[in-house]
Amino acid sequence: MPLRLLASLVLLLLVGCPAAPSELSTTVIGRCSYTGPQSKLAECKDYLGAWKVADSEKDCGDLKGTFVGGTVCTPPVTLGFCVFATSPAQNRTYIASDNVSKCSGARTGCELFGGGKWNPSSLCGGANDEIVVLENAFQEPKKVCFTPDAGEPRAPNATGQVCVWESIHGSTEENRSFRTDARCENSRGGRPYYPKDADARFGMPDSRRTDQVYLAEEAWVRAQINSSSCVCCHSAAAPNGASIFDVDRDGSLANQLTDRGIAHGSGLVNSIPLGGFPPEVNNGFEKSDLVHPDFSVFLSTDPARMKRFWVKEQEHRNLTAATFEGVPDGFGPLSEQRDYQPSACAGGEGIAADGTITWGKGRARYVYVLEVGSKAPTVFPNLDVPVGTRWRLDVPHDGTPLVSQSVKYGVVPDGLRQKVPASGSPAALVSGQQYYLYVTADVMLPITRCLFTAP
């Protein structure tokens, strides 16, 4: 799903940003100093409120950091801090750096991908900073094609070439390796990658390791994953160690996953918010999507077979739909943004009679006008143009983002791209009718998202 803008991730701002968190607890459990897995900068996290010491130490250990109990972070210089205060176990995470080129990415990582509330220091403009992405903006992934080496099977098409989307959810031909046929560094750019240990269940005895039928099916699942971009983060191809599960690791594949991971595999919890390519452009591989929400999160040329493997694991663990009632799906801002319910514009945002578009404090790379009731646009390739999109204007990844009131509805300035409609002008707005204005500083980084009435 996109967002190369950080080889990491991000969340909600300004109109519709998370409500200001409740006050941080004065109960101090400790702090953790570490190098941020996404920012690659020095970070320091405070554990406050209902955290238990043992849980704080484990969390810090997962970050490969140093834990000190009973005290908070006091970095001498900082870009700001990210607050997570919506649950009793609270965190405050500082970016301990003076590299101001990282201000945008810090806010993006906190709010878009972390779901927190960013508090910039004076280095990053204090409370007056605007939402803007000036470098590393998202680029739509590309499909690469090549002729297989001598002795390798040709692809089943007219040219015999293998074609692969170098993207999250991209897949190569069945029985080939994505990590060989595509560049993982391009594919990892659409999601935050960080190493993480397998579930504790992995270390427990498993009688199925002697069941040859089970092992053969597990080997097929591994091969399917190896043909998809999942292998870039969940195998030895990951630069700093696999994240949660490793298809190259000996022993049980399923036991490396948490219960929620199994539910994603079985389709008990759908993975629609992650997005996905249709199988006809993805070498026959498909996953849970708008058409087949109950498919597995794991890409497969035989989705029914893939689902069966994980359903059996679900039954083995006695997991049911009731197990996950009220439990977040695990996709954080991807789900929250897609399901966001806009309210009326309250700060003068909207479209004037002459077509001039006004949005909030930020510089835009994407400007959408949608029908009321439309889902919010999120990630490439299938959720970035939701049903009900009347007009979408794009700034190229290397172009200069737009300031408010610099464009008019239906008018495409030189150097910009109109994605919707594909040609011609959008339908005129009807006076007195309400529409949904959605303006973002980059993919998944909204500036304004509210309902306005056409004059």
Descriptive terms for the model:
455 residues; alpha+beta; 3 domains; six-stranded antiparallel β-sheet; five-stranded antiparallel β-sheet; 8 helices; globular; disordered N terminus
In short:
This protein has 455 residues and is α+β, with helices and mostly antiparallel strands. 15% of the residues lie in helices and 18% in strands. It folds into three domains: 28-128, no CATH class; 147-324, no CATH class; 350-453, no CATH class.
Structural class category: alpha+beta
The strand line-up of the biggest sheet is 3-1-2-5-4-6
Order of helices and strands: EEHEEEHEEEHHHHHHEEEEEEE
- The residue-averaged pLDDT reads 89
Contiguous runs where pLDDT drops below 50 for at least 5 residues = 1-22
Your description of this structure?
There is one protein chain. By secondary structure, the protein is of the alpha+beta class. It folds into three domains: 28-128, no CATH class; 147-324, no CATH class; 350-453, no CATH class. Helices cover 15% and strands 18% of the residues. It has helices at 53-62, 103-111, 178-181, 184-187, 212-226, 259-266, 303-316, 333-338, and strands at 28-35, 42-49, 66-69, 80-84, 89-95, 117-120, 143-146, 162-165, 350-351, 357-358, 366-371, 389-394, 417-420, 434-442, 445-453. Helix 6 (259-266) packs antiparallel against helix 7 (303-316). The radius of gyration is 23 Å and the shape is globular.
